[in-house]
Amino acid sequence: MINKFYFLLIFILSFSMFWQCDNGTGPEKKEKNVPGRILWVDVPDSIAIPPAGYFNKALVTAAVQDSNGLDDVDSVYFYSKKPDGSLANEGRPLVMVDNGKPFNINDPWQQAGDEQAGDGIYSLTILIDNSAQPGRYIFTFYMRDKAGNLSNSMVDSIEVVP
Ligand SMILES: [Ca+2]
Ligand SMILES: [Ca+2]
Fold it and tell me: Strands 154-161 and 46-48, how do they pair?
């Protein structure tokens, strides 16, 4: 009984030493960087397909937080899955901005309708033209920080109505 107990104790001690080694002796000792979080997202419930030659637009926003400060936010983006299951924007993320610039159709990725710069609320105005596929689009949001940590994801959707 006692032998078994010692064996277990040694096992636990050596395991915890190994664990500490593995985590505590990295090449650099930086301030601990933790992943950020998406706090909420706001996507309109629906958007109508406009007549040919017109655009309809909808503002999409996401609020993020990072314990290392908003300066640590590298990018906030979402993927858009179309009703047929394929990804919009050729599978690339739709990158949001927190630059406070009003919407400008000639520069929609940078002048994207963000209300206030630097408040941790990221924005993108999505545009729908007459060629849009009707149905439900699923948006999955992420935030990446400057240490490369990926946040939780958050999902919302919009109905594109004919
Ligand atoms: Ca961080
Ligand atoms: Ca903002």
Answer: parallel
**126 touches 75 (CB < 8 A):** no
Q: Which residues contact 21 (CB under 8 A, 6 or more apart)?
A: none
User: Which ligand gives the minimal distance to the CA of 96?
Assistant: 2
DSSP alpha helices (H): ranges in the chain?
A: 2-24
Distance (Å, rounded) from C-alpha 53 to C-alpha 74? 36
CA atoms 20, 23, 28, 29: torsion sign: negative
> Taking CA 121 as the corner, what is the angle to CA 119 and CA 124, rounded to the nearest 5 degrees?
130
Q: What domains sit in the chain, N to C, each tagged with a CATH number?
A: 37-161 (2.60.40.10)
The residue whose two tokens read 């301030």 is 31
Residue 135: CB atoms within 10 A of its CB come to: 13
C-alpha of residue 29 to centroid of ligand 1, in Å: 15
Whether the pTM exceeds 0.85: the reply is no
pLDDT digits (tens, 9 = 90+) for 84-96: 999 999 999 999 9
Residue with tokens 């206030």: 116
Distance 97 CA to ligand 2 centre (A): 7
Residue that is written with structure tokens 């030659």 in the block: 53
Ligand nearest to the CA of 113: 2
